[in-house]
Amino acid sequence: MFRKLLFRTLVLGALITNTQSFASECDDFTNVEFRKLRSEQTINLCQFKNKPLLIVNTASNCGFTDQFAGLEELHKTYQDKGLVVLGFPSDDFFQEEDDEKDTAKVCFINYGVTFNMFATSAVRGSDANPVFKYLNEQTSSPNWNFYKYLVSADRKQVTRFNSRTKPLSKELTNAIENAL
């Protein structure tokens, strides 16, 4: 009994210390946690400090949904160089599945996505999640699904790419390579 209590106390202490460590090291818009898609696990985006981020609002039933394949290719090509791809499903344009398991199927089974995908959230207006509130203030709200926001490692630059900019386009890949 005492061992269990001691173990739980040590684990809780380590978790609190780790969370405080993230918060003290991260004083920008990424100091926030999101639940992963179809999971109870959460991720604090501070763990990606000093890495460029490619943040995308996604949807499962959009004419641009096939861009998941290109985003996955970007992830595989540049992750070892430091790029972090983050997908935020949103129903702001009424093209996301109602059930999270169906969204997960599109991402993980249909397109083989291995980059971080988060639970569905708003990306526009007053209900926008904290990351998109920041991005919207720096540039503007996405006008459709699959807007891409490249955020520099120092978090000082945000470059927005619209839905028509394909993930593997020269414009986006050049910007990523410059950010790396």
Description:
Belongs to the glutathione peroxidase family. This protein is of the alpha/beta class and 180 residues long. It has one domain (32-179): Glutaredoxin (3-Layer(aba) Sandwich), CATH 3.40.30.10. The protein has 5 helices and 7 strands, in the order αβββαβαβαββα. A 5-stranded mixed β-sheet has the order 5-4-3-6-7, covered by helices on one side. Helix 2 links the parallel strand 3 (53-58) and strand 4.
Task: Summarize this structure as a short list of keywords or feature phrases.
180 residues, alpha/beta, Glutaredoxin, five-stranded mixed sheet, globular, GPX_AS, Thioredoxin-like_sf, Glutathione_peroxidase, peroxidase activity
Provide a short characterization of the protein structure.
This protein is of the alpha/beta class and 180 residues long. It is 37% helix and 16% strand. The protein has a single domain (32-179), classed as Glutaredoxin, CATH 3.40.30.
| pLDDT < 50 stretches | 9-23
Write the H/E string, N to C. Answer: HEEEHEHEHEEH
CATH superfamily: Glutaredoxin
Q: Give me the CATH fold name.
A: Glutaredoxin
**Mean of residue pLDDT?**
90
The description of the largest β-sheet is: 5 strands, mixed
Structure class:
alpha/beta
Distance between the termini: 51 Å
Taken as a percent bin, the fraction of beta residues is 15-25%
Radius of gyration: 17 Å
CATH class reads Alpha Beta
| Count of DSSP H/I helices | 5
> How many beta-strand runs?
7
Write out the strand line-up for the largest beta sheet, numbering strands in chain order: 5-4-3-6-7
Principal-axes shape call: globular
| Proportion of residues in helical segments | 25-40%
Query: How many separate domains make up the residues?
Result: 1
Keywords: Oxidoreductase, Peroxidase, Signal
Protein name: Glutathione peroxidase
GO molecular function, one term: peroxidase activity
Family: Belongs to the glutathione peroxidase family.
